[in-house]
Backbone:
């Protein structure tokens, strides 16, 4: 029996650049000790107090179908949070609670793209972006950001891509950025806002790392003049509260669009479990202290990496201003990111993601996740940097 082209073509075909990751997982399954610096999963688990809140809610009976848009309390809590953080008046009617940010990314594109439309996104990109766009029947169009600009996208490139891609409806951005660690500057965001206005694009702003800022400040483009009506914000409890497995996120946008996104949710996810939403309300009520505690280890490890990298000239770090990753430029070794990552795995049993896994703009780079304890991180990162030095030395010699 034939399957739909939409589902068989979701990944776009070709290699997805995740070979090193699967090799590392196979080695681990075979009992080999591999240091994994690959995916964005905290090395701590969800806080016991949040689990207690979840348990109380479930035992208190919040285990039936929850209302599809999200509970009033959680929608209100998210609306208040967004208002407080951005200054943009936001009410529960602007919020849909979703099973994670991923589901919000899907709903956002579904809400603004018709079959055959084009949807722009910035390369390097989080792995699911092009597939999410294809899943709604639209065509993904990559706009490259450049390593020499610290992977800050340039408004002229966006405008050029929008002008070339006939039928472009939306632009997806992500700051703090996975995989690069870049935090978009106010100038970058101004340029993005201008380009979306000039080409009448929806702006889909993935802000799931907004509590993990090491340098600069997080600015939500929804707060820029005239942008609230064309911006959709994707948020999540996954990264800010170490609740990746709870699958709780949100989409924020104009009330009319949210009404339609609720109808979409009725026909797809049918909402998020009530006890998870109650736990999310509890977690948000804890305020900044909990979020800062969860973010702190990543900042520490980023500083460790800075200390190790200073004083050598082979590995260049893209300014790592936020999120739980570092992007390293290893082009001086003469190897591709993929070849380097494979050799590092073979020689030192350290697994990192080749930049190529996140698009062509990150070729010759590595993404290192800051997700193991400080001592093991320092040791693995030191080995990686020395390994790069040796490779560059033998290439030169
Ligand atoms: N956006 C980005 C940039 C991510 O890195 C992730 C998860 N790694 C997500 C969205 C989705 O996260 P979740 O569905 O867990 O909220």
Residues:
């Amino acid at each position: 029996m034939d399957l739909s082209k939409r589902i068989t073509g979701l990944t776009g075909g070709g290699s997805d650049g995740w070979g090193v990751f699967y090799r590392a997982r196979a080695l681990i399954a075979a009992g080999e000790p591999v240091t994994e610096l690959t995916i964005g999963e905290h090395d701590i688990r969800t806080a016991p107090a949040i689990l207690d809140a979840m348990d109380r809610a479930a035992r208190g009976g919040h285990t039936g179908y929850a209302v599809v848009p999200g509970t009033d309390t959680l929608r209100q809590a998210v609306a208040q949070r967004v208002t407080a953080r951005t200054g943009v008046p936001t009410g529960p009617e602007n919020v849909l609670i979703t099973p994670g940010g991923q589901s919000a990314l899907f709903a956002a594109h579904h809400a603004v793209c018709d079959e055959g439309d084009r949807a722009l996104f910035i390369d390097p990109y989080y792995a699911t972006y092009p597939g999410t766009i294809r899943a709604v029947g639209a065509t993904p169009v990559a706009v490259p950001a450049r390593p020499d600009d610290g992977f800050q996208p340039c408004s002229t490139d966006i405008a050029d891509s929008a002008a070339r891609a006939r039928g472009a409806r939306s632009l997806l951005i992500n700051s703090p950025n996975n995989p690069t660690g870049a935090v978009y500057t106010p100038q970058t965001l101004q340029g993005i806002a201008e380009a979306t206005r000039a080409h009448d694009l929806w702006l889909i702003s993935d802000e799931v790392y907004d509590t993990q800022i090491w340098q600069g400040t997080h600015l939500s483009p929804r707060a820029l003049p005239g942008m609230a009506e064309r911006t959709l914000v994707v948020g999540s409890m996954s990264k800010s509260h170490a609740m990746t497995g709870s699958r709780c996120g949100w989409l924020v946008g104009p009330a009319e669009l949210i009404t339609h996104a609720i109808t979409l949710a009725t026909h797809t996810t049918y909402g998020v479990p009530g006890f998870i939403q109650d736990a999310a309300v509890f977690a948000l009520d804890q305020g900044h202290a909990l979020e800062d505690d969860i973010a702190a280890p990543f900042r520490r490890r980023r500083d460790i990496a800075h200390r190790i990298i200073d004083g050598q000239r082979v590995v260049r770090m893209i300014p790592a201003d936020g999120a739980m990753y570092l992007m390293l430029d290893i082009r001086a070794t003469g190897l591709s990111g993929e070849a380097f990552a494979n050799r590092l795995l073979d020689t030192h049993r350290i697994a990192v993601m080749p930049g190529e896994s996140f698009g062509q703009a990150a070729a010759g780079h590595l993404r290192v996740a800051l997700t193991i304890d400080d001592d093991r991180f320092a040791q693995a990162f030191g080995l990686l940097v020395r390994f790069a030095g040796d490779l560059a030395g033998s290439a030169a010699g």
